[in-house]
Design brief:
The chain is α/β, with parallel strands linked by helices. It has one domain. Helix content is 33%, strand content 22%. It has two helices and three strands. The protein has a three-stranded parallel beta sheet with strand order 1-2-3, with helices on one face. Helix 2 links the parallel strand 2 and strand 3. Helix 1 runs parallel beside helix 2. The longest helix is centred in the last third of the chain and has 15 residues. It is globular, with a radius of gyration of 14 Å. It starts with 7 loop residues before the first strand and ends in a 9-residue tail after the last strand.
Length: 83
C-alpha cells in the first residue's frame, strides 16, 4: 500500500463487524481499518440513531477506538414495513 490505498469494508449489520474481527485475528486483514456502515438497506440494520451507536460501540470493543475510521451511508426508503 505504497500509495496509502486501503480496502473499505461495508458493514450492513453488527455481524459483519464480528466477521471482520475474525479476519483481523487470523492476520488476513491488516489495519488501520476503514469501515463503511450502510444503514437502511434491505437485509441490514435500519437507519435509527440507536443502530449507529450500536455499530460504533461494537467496533470500539472489537478494534479499539484508534483501530479504525468509519463513514456512514444511509439508504433512504430502501426498507419499508407494511404492518
Amino acid at each position: 500500500m505504497a500509495y496509502g490505498t486501503r480496502f473499505e469494508f461495508e458493514c450492513y449489520d453488527v455481524g459483519h463487524l464480528y466477521n471482520l474481527a475474525y479476519l483481523v485475528e487470523e492476520g488476513l486483514v491488516l489495519g488501520p481499518l476503514f469501515l463503511q456502515w450502510v444503514l437502511g438497506g434491505l437485509g441490514g440494520l435500519n437507519g435509527d440513531p440507536e443502530n449507529l451507536f450500536l455499530m460504533r460501540s461494537t467496533a470500539d470493543r472489537l478494534f479499539g477506538r484508534d483501530g479504525y475510521e468509519f463513514s456512514v451511508r444511509w439508504v433512504p426508503g430502501a426498507v419499508k414495513c407494511h404492518w
